[in-house]
Amino acid sequence: MKKLIVASSTLREALLIGKMGMRKHSVLPILECFKCEVKIANGKASLEITGTDLENFFTASINCEAKEQFGFTLPSNDLGFIESISEQPLTLEIDTEKNTVAIHTGTESVMSVGESVEDFPITPNLPLKKLGNMTTDFIAELKTSVKYVCTDTRFGKLQYQGIGIETTEQGLNLIATDAWVLRQCSVNGEMENVGTSFVMNPTVCKLISRLKKVEDLQLSIMEGESSTSAVLNFYTKRIQVTVIARNLDCNVVDYKAATPTYSTTTVTLNKKNLQQKVEQAMLYANHNFQGVFSINGKVILTAQDMDNTKEFKSEFAHQHKEGEDLDISFNLSFLKKVLANVNSDSVTIEMTTQSRAAVIKEEGVLTLVMPILLAA
Questions:
Q1: pLDDT confidence of 322, banded at 50, 70, 90?
Q2: By the 8 A CB rule, do 321 and 267 touch?
Q3: Which residues contact 249 (CB under 8 A, 6 or more apart)?
Q4: Which of 186, 191, 244, 272 is the most exposed place for a label (fewest CB within 10 A)?
Q5: Are the beta carbons of 228 and 131 closer than 8 angstroms?
Q6: Cβ burial 147-180 (10 Å sphere, 16+ → b, else e)
Q7: Phi then psi for 350, rounded to 5 degrees?
Q8: What is the distance of C-alpha 289 from the center of its chain?
Q9: Which candidate, 290, 276, 364, places its Cα nearest to that of 333?
Q10: Contacts of 210 (CB under 8 A, 6+ apart)
C-alpha cells in the first residue's frame, strides 16, 4: 500500500488544470483518468498530475508528502468529492496492484478503482527548442486571437482554424483569421530562434487563456518526426504547469501578402459612435448583415433587408478624412467584433478599393477586414 499527503486546495487546482487536457465522453476508459506520479528529488516529494486527449497534455506539479516514488491513476469522478470539501490535508492510500485509490479526510473517505498506470499514454519527451520568455500579455492576446479563428471546419482552411505564431527579434507575432477578418498582434518578449513559425490549435489556446496570474511563462517547441508541438511552462500560484499542445500541420497565414501597401481613402471615426451605428444597422440588414458606407464629406451608413421592406440610413461626421470619396460594403457583424477589441476612443480605417481589405491599425495590432462586393 502506497501513501501520500497533500493539501486539498492545491490538489483541487492541479486536477482542474489536468482536466483541461481531457476530452469529454472518451471511448477509452484510461482517458477518463488522471495520471499521477510521485517523484522525489533532493529529499522533496512532488506529485505530477496529467490529463490528455491523446494530442494535448496538461501537467500540474505540486508539493506533497511521500516516502517513495510510484505512479497511479485517479478517476476524474473523484474531482467532484475533492471540490466539495473544505481546505484540509488529504491522505491518499493507493493499492498499485488493484489500482484502487482511497482518499481520507479527518471525517470522510472515498474509494475508487482506476486503470493501470502503464496503460496511460506516454507524454512526449523530445528535446525542446526554447523560443523565449513571455509576458502576461501573451495570455491576454491568445484570448483575443481565438475570437478570430475559423469555427466552421467544413469550409475553412486548416491554417484558418488555429493561431499562427512567429518569433521576431522583439517578441512574437500572433495571426488569426477566418478569411474575412485577419488580426495580427505583437507581443514583447526575450526571444531565441528568431524566424520559427507554427500554428497552435485553438482548443488549447482557449483553455490556456482561461488561466489567471500566470508567472514565468516560457515558450518552446518540440519537433517530432511527423509533427511539432508547442510547449508552455509556467507557474500559477504554487503550481508548476507544463502544456504540450500539438500544432496544426500547416503554415502560418502570410498576412503581409494580404495587407494593402497603400491606401486611397483614410477616415477616422469616433469608436463609440461607430459601434452604435453598426449595431442599429444590423437590426435592418439582410442575412449577410451587409452595410454600405458612403464616405465623402460625411459618412453615411445604409443597410437593407433582402425584400427591401426595411432600411436603415444614418449620417454621421468623421473626425478626419484623407484621399478619395469611396463607397464600400462590409459584413457588420465582423466589423462589430473588430470594434469591440479596439482600445482607443477613435478608429482609423484605411481603404484602397471596394474589393481590397480595409486596414485598422493600433499600437502592436493590425486588423484586416474584407469587404462585400457591391453590385454594379
A1: very high
A2: yes
A3: 158, 227
A4: 272
A5: no
A6: bbbbeeeeeeeebbbbbbbbbeeebbbbbbbbeb
A7: -105, 130
A8: 27
A9: 290
A10: 20
* pLDDT score of 376 more than 80: no
| 307 exposure class (CB count in 10 Å sphere: 0-12, 13-18, 19+) | exposed
Give burial (CB, 10 Å; 0-12/13-18/19+) of 253.
Answer: buried
Q: Count of alpha carbons within 13 Å of 58, Cβ hemisphere only?
A: 25
Q: What percent of the chain has pLDDT over 90?
A: 80
Alpha carbon distances (Å) from 84 to 17, 80, 157, 236: 17, 6, 44, 22
Q: Name the helix (H) or strand (E) containing 175.
A: strand 171-177
Phi, psi dihedral angles at 195 (to 5 degrees): 100, -5
User: Strand pairing of 171-177 and 89-95?
Assistant: unpaired
**What torsion, rounded to 10 degrees, do the Cα atoms 158, 164, 167, 168 define?**
120
Residue that the C-alpha cell 484623407 belongs to: 322
Give me the residue label for grid cell 522533496: 44
CB 40, CB 66: distance < 8 Å:
yes
Contact 345, 262 (CB under 8 A): no
pLDDT over 70 at 375, yes or no:
no
- Name the one residue in this structure whose C-alpha cell is 469611396: 326
The tens digit of pLDDT for each residue in 165-179 reads 999 998 999 999 999
Query: Could you tell me which residues are beta bridge partners of residue 113?
Result: 100
Side-chain-side CA neighbours of 234 within 13 Å: the count stands at: 27
Q: pLDDT, tens digit, for every residue of 259-301?
A: 999 999 999 999 999 999 999 999 999 998 999 999 988 899 9
How far is the first Cα of the chain from the last one, in angstroms, to the nearest whole number? 80
